[in-house]
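Sample intake sheet
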Amino acid sequence: MKKKKLTADQLAEMADQGADVTSQMTLPQKGGVHRTTLDIGQELLRDIDVISDSLNVSRQALIKIAMQDYVIKWKTAKQLKIG
């Protein structure tokens, strides 16, 4: 059975209501999964944990979502850049 595709706003609203949205957090894979290590300061890590708890997603899922969002915005800005 195929997952119903939701918009980012729909996912955010579901998370705000306390729904577990981790099943919707699959990222397109190019060439499989590549593991990485990321050093994060204590204060930022605490902030990430607060946000992930409030959205009811794992720390890892939140970081993946945030990075994917950043990359999409960066690519869009690059495409829209004139000259």
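Comment: The radius of gyration is 15 Å. The domain at 38-83 is CATH 1.10.1220 (Arc Repressor Mutant).
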